[in-house]
C-alpha cells in the first residue's frame, strides 16, 4: 500500500510501529511523525522515508494535533498507525476526528485488503474479537510491545522540522514525574499476579518470596494498584494496563473479570489460585488450584526452591 | 456555577454474553443492559463537582431502542435531567457516529462548561468519543484524568500518563474524559430512586438534530464478531492439602515441559 504513516511521541513505540507499517507499505515509502530531534533520527534510521520532527513550544504532544492532521492531509494517506500510549490514544482519536476518518483502537492484527485495511480488535472486555474492514483513509492504534522494532535500514530517511505552537486554551500547572522502577512486565518471562484475595499489603512479602524463588516479576489487578495503591500502576494487568506475554503466569486471588483476563491472554501457561471454584479466572487458566493462597503460596515457594 | 453534561452508554452486561465454544458464536439472548461502568465514575465526579459548586448536571446518551430503560437508573445517581436519543442506528454506530450525534445534541442543551466522558465504553472500549466530541464542538479535550477540581472558574485536571502526572488548567469550557479511579460510584438509595422518576426526561430524535440514519453509519464494515478462543487446559486441582495440590501442579508442569 502507498501512503502509510506512523505517529508516535515516544521513540521506542514509534520504532515498533514501523514493523507493521513497512509490511503494509510492501516496499513503498513510510512516513513518520514524532517529537524532537532524537526521536526523529531514530525513526529515520529504522526505515521511515521521511520524518516530520515536531518541536513543541509547550512540551505537550497534544498541542500538535492540528499540525499532525494538516501534514497527513497535505501529503495524502491511506493508513495512519498511532502508538496506543496514554497520550497517543487521545492524539489518535483527535487526529482521526480532524481527518473525519474511522479508527480501530488497539488492534491485535492488521493487514492490507482490497481498498484499505482489515483490522482485528478485542471487544467486550476481551470476550470477542471483531474484524473490521476500512475503505479509504483509516486510523489505527497499536498497543506498545505488540511488535518488535525492525532492523536498521540501509539508508536513513529525510527529517523535516516543524514548529508546533502552544495550545493557548490548556496550561500546564505541574508535571510530577512518576518514579518508574523501569520494569517491563510485558517482556517478563515469568509473572506472579496478585488480586483482592491478598488481604493485607504486608502479605505481599510472602508473594515476593515466591517471585524470588520462581524468578518472576510481581504484578497485580487494577484494584490493587489504583484503589489500594499497594503496587505502582506500571504493574497492573488488564485491558487498560499491561498485557503480559509470559511463559508462565501465576494468578493469586484474582477473580478474573474480563477486563483483567484481556491482559493475560497472550501468556503461554496460566496457573490460577483462588478459594472460589466458580471464579472466572479458572476458565482462563491452564491449571487452577482451588485453595487458600495463604496455604498454597508457601507450599509453592517451597516446592520451587526444592 | 458550572453547567455539566455527562455522557453515558447503555451497554449489554458482559456477564450475560456467552460464547459457544465450538462455533465461537456469541449468544446475547436475554442479556440485561447496564450503564457502562466507566461512565458511572464520570457521573460520580460530575455529581461531586455539582455538590461542591452548584450549577446544573445533565446526562446525555445515544443508544438503541431500549435506551429508555436506562433513565431511572441514571437519574437516580444525581443528575438533574436526562437527554436521550434512542434509535436502532445506534446498534451499529462507531465512535465517530456517536460523537456526531452527541455533539449535535449538546448544541440543543444549555451551554455546557464541562462535558464529562468515561475512559471508554465497557463494550467497544474505543476511547475516542471524548476527543471526537471536542473536535466537533471546537473545545479542548483533556483525557486520562485521575483528579479534577473547579477553581476560580477553571478546570484543574491531573492526567495519569504512566511516566508522569501532568496537571493542566483549562479556563473555558472543555471535554474531559476520566479514569475509573477518579470517583467511586455511589449506590443510589430508595429516596433517590423514587425521585428519579420525577426528573425531566427529554427525548430527542435524529430528525430533531437534522440527522438521519445515513449520518450515523460506521466508517468500517464489521466482517465478523467471534468469541475470542481461549485454548486453555482448564485443569482444576483440588487435593486435600495445599502441599498435595502444589505437588500435582508441579508434576503437570514438568510433564508439559514448562518447568
Give the class of chain B from helix and strand content and strand pairing: alpha/beta
Classify the oligomer: heterodimer
Q: Give the ordered list of helices and strands of chain B.
A: EEEEEHEHEHEHEEEEHEEEH
Principal-axes shape call of chain A: elongated
What is the number of strand segments of chain A? 16
Strand order of the largest sheet of chain B: 11-10-9-12-8-1-6-7-13
Helix content of chain A: 25-40%
What is the count of helical runs of chain A?
8
- Give me the secondary-structure category of chain A: alpha/beta
Largest sheet of chain B: 9 strands, mixed
Helix proportion of residues of chain B, in percent?
A: 25-40%
Beta content of chain B: 25-35%
Order of helices and strands of chain A: EHEHEHEHEEEEEEEEHEHEHEEH
Number of helices of chain B: 6
- N-end to C-end Cα span of chain B: 63 Å
What are the low-pLDDT stretches of chain B, counting only 5+ consecutive residues below 50? Answer: none
Rg of chain A, nearest Å: 21 Å
Strand portion of chain A: 25-35%
Mean model confidence by pLDDT of chain A: 95
User: What value does the average pLDDT of chain B take?
Assistant: 96
Can you put this structure into words, describing what you see?
The complex is a heterodimer of chains A (about 300) and B (about 260). With about 300 residues, chain A is an alpha/beta fold. Helices cover about 25% and strands about 30% of the residues of chain A. Chain A has 8 helices and 16 strands. In chain A, the strands form 3 sheets. In chain A, strands 5-9-4-1-2-3-10 form a 7-stranded parallel beta sheet, sandwiched between helices. In chain A, helix 7 (about 260) links the parallel strand 14 (about 250) and strand 15. In chain A, helix 3 (about 65-75) crosses helix 4 and helix 5 (about 205-215) runs parallel beside helix 8 (about 295-305). The radius of gyration of chain A is 21 Å and the shape is elongated. The model of chain A has no long low-confidence stretch (mean pLDDT about 95). The mean pLDDT of chain B is about 95. Chain B has helices at about 35-55, 70-75, 95-105, 130-135, 190-195, 240-255, and strands at about 5, 10, 20, 25, 35, 55-65, 80-85, 115-120, 140-150, 155-160, 165-170, 175-180, 200-205, 220-225, 235. Chain B is α/β, with parallel strands linked by helices. In chain B, about 45% of the residues are buried. In chain B, the strands form 3 sheets. A 9-stranded mixed beta sheet of chain B has the order 11-10-9-12-8-1-6-7-13, with helices on both faces. Helices cover about 25% and strands about 30% of the residues of chain B. At the A-B interface, helix 4, strand 5, strand 7, strand 8 and strand 11 of A face helix 3, helix 4, strand 9, strand 10 and strand 11 of B. Strand 11 of chain A pairs antiparallel with strand 11 (about 165-170) of chain B.
